Amino acid sequence: MNRRTELGTGSGHITVLLEGRGSFAEVPRLCAGRRVLVVASEGALRRVPVAAWPAADVVTFISFQPNPTLAQAVEAAMLCQASGADLVVGLGGGSALDVAKAGRVLPGDVAAAEEIIAGRRPATADGRQLLLVPTTAGTGSEVTQFATLYRGHRKVSLDTPVARTDFAVVDPALTETCPPGLTWTCALDTLAHAVESLWSIRSTAESREQATAALRLLVPVLLHADDLPDPAERDQLSRAATLAGRAIDITRTTAAHAMSYPLTARLGIPHGLACALNLLWLAPLVEGAKAEQVIDARGHEAVQDAVGTLHDLFRTADGTDLATVLRTVLDRRAPRPYTSVRYDTSLDLLVREGMSSDRMSGTPVRIERSQARAGLETVLRGDSREGVRHTCATTG
């Protein structure tokens, strides 16, 4: 069944969210008569006949990579302005959606865009609307006000209410071409979003409700689906991704995401897997934190309440700790073959870059540099003494 929801924010912006199988049929209608810039991968454009949409004009932008750079987003912005587009469509995974967001609101100049990223200059959409259509189930970018970009090996974030979409169309049928590796890596990103949002120091009643609802849908699929989810399970993954996206739009992420960025940028570990690997060492620190280690202003009880909710959702009534059940998930879903990562990058560099991320600030417990280093060393080298045997070979 299709759902239409209007998502409001404190700024007064309304996002129209269309969800469910068949909802993609609304996209051509939303583009009718418009001058459209479509930001999409070549693969997405082969699957979707954008040239047949009843738009006044359609221009496409494909010159970006997974984990897109700020320079690529500025290139999209230049094309957006040159084409006179009054509607920008992001079609694809999180990278396409993030470039579409940034291309709509950034100026066509890197120095000026840097000013906006740094918060020294306001972003503006100049009357252009935005339509986001995810073809993967994971990032939740269709309902957040931020876009992840990279400058060299360092992650930067465009974070502004102006980056919110006007329309989001989430049709699970579009995810059915995703192979197992991509499907589960994206699902692990949803897992990290929901878990981190639930224990974040910025969590609210609303964000906890959304994160909990996401995990209720997600966990059974992660634990029990076949190598590829069936259509009903893909429906659950898409819905969970959007709910978790709405949760992190309120709270932002925490240390698992902060420490993931150098693992992706420098070692090529897929983003969702990098986040999940960090949960393996982070979860025991949050779960076992003493009152004096908690930095959430609401105190130790708030952290334990979040941990208790996670135990309920993962059904660990037998006393299983969170790290053990997370390892079970990775054993089933992380890309094969499982090997220890071989890397030349200094652990200290990875730790320094990860801990410098502003996403560390949402973590509910104090994380010492030595703890982060030991955690990364465990997951990257596959230390079996900690029960973490499975990691991922780097990709280019």
From TrEMBL:
| UniProt keyword terms in alphabetical order | Oxidoreductase
Q: Is Oxidoreductase among the key words of this record?
A: yes
Pfam annotation, one family: ADH_Fe_C
Q: What InterPro entries does the record tag this protein with?
A: ADH_Fe/GldA, ADH_Fe_C, Alcohol_dehydrogenase_Fe, PhpC
Signal peptide location in the record?
none
Q: Where is the Alcohol dehydrogenase iron-type/glycerol dehydrogenase GldA domain?
A: 18-172
The record places domain Fe-containing alcohol dehydrogenase-like C-terminal at 186-279
- Could you tell me which CDD domains the record lists for this protein? HEPD
Q: Does the record's keyword annotation contain Cell inner membrane? A: no
Highest taxon of source: Bacteria
Tell me what organism the protein belongs to.
Answer: Streptomyces ureilyticus
Q: What is this protein called?
A: Phosphonoacetaldehyde reductase
